Amino acid sequence: MRSASRDRNSKMMTSLKDQEKISIRGQVRGVDSVRVGSVSVIAGKRGMLRAAFVKDEDFVAPSDLPHPEDVVSAVTKSKLKVDVVVVGQDFRRAQPLYNNLSHEIDNVAGIELASYEEWLKGLSQSTRRNVRLAERRGVEIRVSDYSEEFASGIKGVYDECPVRQGRPFWHYGKPLTAVFQENGTYRDSSDFIGAYYEGEMIAFIKVVNVDGLSRIMQILGMTTHFDKKPMFALVAKAVELACAREATHLTYCKYEYEGQPDSTIAEFKRRLSFEKYEYPLYVVPVNAKGHLGVRMGAHKGLAALLPQPVIDRARRMREKICRNRSSSRQSL
After folding, report:
1. For domain 114-247, is the CATH number 3.40.630.30?
2. Which helix (H) or strand (E) holds 189?
3. Nearest-angstrom CA–CA distance, 312 and 243
4. Which residues lie below 8 Å from residue 143, measured CB to CB, with a gap of 6+?
5. pLDDT in tens, 256-301
6. What is the rounded CA–CA span in Å between residue 262 and residue 265?
7. Across all residues in the chain, what is the average pLDDT?
8. Where are the domains of the chain?
9. CA distance linking residue 16 with residue 286, whole number of Å
10. Alpha carbons 200 and 58: distance in angstroms, whole number
11. Which of 32, 31, 104, 51 is nearest to 286 (CA)?
12. Which of 73, 75, 134, 209 might form a disulfide with 80, Cβ 3.0–4.6 angstroms?
């Protein structure tokens, strides 16, 4: 892990404003970017503000994350149009590395790893039963090289349903070429694991391994095979592989999201022994709008500004609209 007193000169090599391709709501788009050291800093949205942040920060080696002030300098020189700079740090270091900079607390869901057997033993009896249920019901878990065949299986999972978690599913109906390209990132450092029932992929997980961490990038399964609990078996296999790699942790996005304190995915993580790790997130304004927006909490989005009952009511309304639209399409 890096020290806050590192030589920053080697990290300060920047390039002029460029373009990077990223996925936004399931669509690949070009965004303005600037190079800072070994990472790309991209322009995007953070709540109601324009923000600069490290591209794919969760899958960058923590030792390669730039100093926030270096990012501010690069953004200013390249004239990247943003209001704030947002940079995290290694979640395994809970104390701020840069005490002079404004920061807030973010979180990640993680399992501290010792051995697969110890992790399994720490699960509740019902969760251990779910981990083993897939095999008993005929599901085979396979670790695969990334190929067009694996991408075709992913597409089959994507195309099961146009609505997921109460909102339109971005990847539904995508052509195989797009599915293959978008899921092939970090393939040399990733584990691709599929769950198969009677020869058909019914769920999959992609885990990126970086700097002593194994990080789940995506996990998804068919709702029609929910009874076989393939998602539990996939996480178990990911834990097994991470332990074999001597990774310190397996992580899976955030533990808590604004406005979603008790979602089904949060319960899924809790049952599999994911815990909340809090770490500093540096939010540094670069203009007057950024200073005002950060004070108001505009960078956190509406979920942080509205009362929970209002958010819950809006979510139920959205789910109802999505279900009705999906039913209308299927009846055509």
Report:
1. yes
2. none
3. 38
4. 191, 192, 193, 237, 241
5. 886 566 678 999 999 999 999 999 999 999 999 999 999 989 988 7
6. 8
7. 88
8. 9-106+281-321, 114-247
9. 18
10. 31
11. 51
12. 75
Task: Output the CA angle 93-94-98, nearest 5 degrees.
Answer: 80
Burial annotation 283-309 (CB, 10 A radius, 16+ → b, else e) = bbbbeebbeebbeeebbbbebebeeee
CB 286 within 8 A of CB 83: yes
Q: pTM for this structure?
A: 0.86
Residue type, 171: H
Q: Which helix (H) or strand (E) holds 256?
A: none
Q: Which of 81, 62, 75, 70 is nearest to 37 (CA)?
A: 70
Largest CA distance in the chain: 63
Signed CA dihedral, 159, 161, 164, 170: sign only: positive
Number of H helices and E strands in the chain, helices first, is: 10, 14
Burial 134-143 (b: 16+ CB within 10 A, else e): beeeebebee
180 token code pair? 């293959």
Helix axes of 125-136 and 264-271: crossing angle, nearest 10 degrees: 100
Per residue in 170-223, pLDDT (tens digit) is 899 999 999 999 999 999 999 999 999 999 999 999 999 999 999 999 999 999
Which amino acid makes up residue 303? A
Taking CA atoms, 311 is separated from 45, 301, 304, 308, 315, in Å, by 20, 12, 10, 5, 6
The strand pair at 213-221 and 249-251 is best described as parallel
The angle that helices 230-244 and 125-136 make with each other, rounded to 10 degrees, is: 100
SS3 for 275-287 is EEEEEEEEEEECC
